[in-house]
Specification:
The protein has about 375 residues and is of the alpha+beta class. It contains nine helices and 19 strands. Strand 4 and strand 5 form a beta hairpin. The two termini are about 35 Å apart. It binds adenosine-5'-triphosphate (ATP). GO terms for molecular function: ATP binding.
Length: about 375
């Protein structure tokens, strides 16, 4: 079993760069935790501190409940996989996979058996005699994985392990990696800047920005109920609509969100409306995903917002309509049919559906 806990962990490099700023994060036993964020936000530095390759400037890195700040990397029962695979070019695939076992003095007999087991599990059992240069990128990454799991580590640390591969192979390997780590029950911390990778692979995602942890939760939680405006805007494609609105509560019957030229009315019987009602008389930012907005026919009665279609984008599985609602631009997922006959510039009514995502309240983007 391996758990990881970061307690107020900070890393300031010698040149004064604050790479990681007072991070608190728990990774449970057997959990697949993804660290997600743009380049330079400090993900790798966190990983390197967990590995013991970098010392925290302040705070504690805890492994299995014990402070591990002074524990050398070799005593941490971890295995790392990097972006560049770092295989030994002069060794065969089998020797590459078995290298950690040889280092720890495992006899050739049992070593060979273990190599064979691991290679079969990864689907590279038939290339053990080859050199890395005779492999495809995907096979090389599998060898790197094999070398990492051969010693049955308690903790996997992976730093952008798929970023050198083409997109088809990335999708294939991402399913394999998450399947394999779950099968093995190994706690994993996986670093990536690719949100599709993060959302599809993770049990939980930790989103970082400029060294600061912004949000931690399951993919559904961070996508549906982002903790900050930054996370709301960062996750998802198309980006979440973020509209400024003034809030008016009407006699406990409905809440009006004044968006400028038009208003959006929220029914009182929706629990989310009460949360917004709290901000009566104030300005807030409302977050709505494109897929949460329902297009309706132009003659629909009731509370609808009217918008002018600026342009349409067809993605095969979905079509997006980019609209102007007064001075505000929003994007709506047309869900197929309604957009077929729409012409950019045409005026149409677009209703904000009841499946609105969380209203982000007064969260301030630092
Ligand atoms: P990427 O996805 O590009 O690898 P990252 O999120 O992993 O980025 P880090 O590599 O952890 O980010 O770097 C975080 C910050 O710390 C960056 O501003 C980087 O330039 C800085 N940094 C990293 N290593 C050092 C170092 N040895 N000395 C000084 N600054 C460093």
């Amino acid at each position: 079993m391996t758990t990881v806990a970061l307690k107020d962990v900070t890393k300031v490099f010698q040149d004064g760069t604050v790479a990681v700023d007072t991070i608190n994060l728990d990774v449970n036993d057997g959990e697949f935790m993804v660290l997600l964020g743009p380049s330079g936000c400090g993900k790798s530095t966190v990983l390197r501190m967990v590995a013991g390759l970098e010392d925290p400037t302040a705070g504690a890195v805890m492994l299995d409940g014990e402070v591990a700040n002074d524990l050398p990397p070799r005593d941490r029962k971890i295995a790392m996989v990097f972006q560049d695979f770092a295989l030994y070019p002069h060794m065969t695939v089998g020797d590459n996979i078995g290298f950690p076992l040889r280092l720890s003095g495992v006899e050739p007999g049992p070593r060979g058996e273990r190599i064979q087991d691991v290679a079969s599990a990864l689907g590279i059992g038939d290339v053990l005699a080859r050199k890395p240069s005779q492999l495809s990128g995907g096979q090389r990454q599998r060898v790197a994985m094999g070398r990492a799991i051969v010693r049955r580590p308690g903790l996997f640390l992976m730093d952008e392990p798929l970023s050198n591969l083409d997109s088809g192979l990335r999708a294939e390997l991402r399913a394999e990696i998450s399947g394999l780590t779950r099968e093995l029950g190994v706690t994993t911390i996986y670093v990536t800047h690719d949100q599709a990778e993060a959302l599809t692979m993770a049990d939980r995602v930790a989103i970082m920005r400029k060294g600061v942890l912004q949000d931690v939760g399951t993919p559904t939680q961070v996508y549906g109920r982002p903790a900050t405006l930054y996370v709301a805007a960062f996750l998802g494609s198309p980006r979440m609509n973020l509209l400024e609105a003034s809030v008016y509560v009407h006699l406990d019957r409905y809440v009006a969100l004044n968006l400028g030229e038009q208003s959006l009315y929220l029914p009182w019987d929706d629990i989310r409306t009460r949360a917004v009602a709290h901000y009566h008389g104030e300005r807030i930012v409302v977050g709505m995903r494109a897929e949460a907005l329902t297009p309706v026919a132009p003659d629909t009665q009731g509370h609808v917002l009217q918008g002018r279609i600026r342009f349409l984008e067809h993605h095969g599985h979905e079509s997006l309509a980019f609209l102007d609602i007064g001075a505000t631009a929003i994007v709506v997922d047309e869900m197929g049919a309604p957009v077929e006959n729409a012409v950019p510039g045409q005026r149409g009514l677009r209703r904000f559906g009841h499946v609105m995502q969380r209203l982000t309240g007064r969260t301030v983007d630092a």
